[in-house]
């Protein structure tokens, strides 16, 4: 049963009983359903609202939110720039429309040369073009002019992927940008909060200390491209305009 006791602390709208807890979501679909309950009072059947899901993990979350709130769904294609030799960690993020964000503090510690950084960005750009072809049939990034966009992922870790997504939404004309994630640490929410126009929705907020997005889920695995395509084909929420 979804907890409905909400608390707004600063700019974060959360479910207070879930604060700091682990294993609170059965899977990404369940996380999306709980996130939709947070968003519903303001965004149910909202005119000119659009859910922007960040692949891959944000897709099942975004689909659940979009279908529950009766809102159209699109994708925000953004990828982290991987640290050489470490497929799990990144030192920045790139969007389909070209925005690049670096974690400058981490870069200073990594001491990567300019050519390595340039290659990292280009590799991600090539990956994004391929994902756009597979997930969106190669269509141009959606025109967000005059739209209220709700950016959805399966969680925030460093927050740099979401920062890049917010910049892309702004540069593509969004009039209002909202961040909605099932789980995140406070430090990452504080970093992205200035770019979110009306607070951040996070069902499972964590304080200081170690954090992993996966720890919020009882069933967690990496989605491959085939599963993302299957989910997108199965939903009636996907916008094609």
Automatic annotation (TrEMBL):
One family name in Pfam for this protein: Pribosyltran
GO molecular function, one term: glycosyltransferase activity
Keywords, comma-separated and alphabetical: Glycosyltransferase, Transferase
Keyword Phosphoprotein: no
Phosphoribosyltransferase domain mapped to chain residues: 37-181
InterPro entries (UniProt xref): PRTase-like, PRTase_dom
Protein name: Phosphoribosyltransferase
Native source species: Oceanidesulfovibrio marinus
Source organism phylogeny: Bacteria, Pseudomonadati, Thermodesulfobacteriota, Desulfovibrionia, Desulfovibrionales
């Amino acid at each position: 049963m979804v907890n409905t006791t909400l608390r707004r602390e600063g700019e974060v709208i959360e479910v207070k009983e879930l604060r700091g807890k682990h294993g609170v979501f059965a899977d990404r679909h369940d996380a999306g359903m709980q996130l939709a309950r947070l968003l519903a009072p303001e965004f149910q059947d909202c005119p000119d609202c659009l859910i922007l899901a960040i692949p891959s993990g944000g897709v099942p979350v975004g689909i659940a939110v979009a279908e529950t709130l009766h809102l159209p769904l699109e994708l925000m294609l953004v990828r982290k720039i991987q640290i050489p030799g470490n497929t799990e960690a990144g030192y920045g993020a790139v969007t389909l429309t070209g925005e690049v964000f670096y974690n400058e503090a981490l870069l200073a510690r990594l001491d990567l040369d300019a050519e390595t950084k340039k290659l990292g960005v280009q590799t991600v750009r090539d990956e994004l073009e391929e994902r756009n072809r597979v997930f969106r049939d190669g269509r141009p990034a959606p025109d967000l002019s005059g739209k209220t966009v709700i950016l959805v992922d399966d969680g925030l870790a460093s927050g740099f992927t979401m920062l890049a997504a917010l910049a892309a939404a702004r540069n593509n004309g969004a009039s209002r940008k909202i961040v909605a994630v099932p789980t995140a640490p406070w430090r990452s929410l504080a970093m992205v909060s200035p770019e979110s126009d009306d607070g951040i929705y996070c069902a499972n907020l964590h304080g200081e200390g170690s954090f992993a997005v996966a720890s919020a889920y009882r069933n967690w695995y990496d989605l491959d491209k085939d599963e993302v395509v299957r989910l997108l084909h199965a939903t009636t929420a996907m916008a094609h305009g």
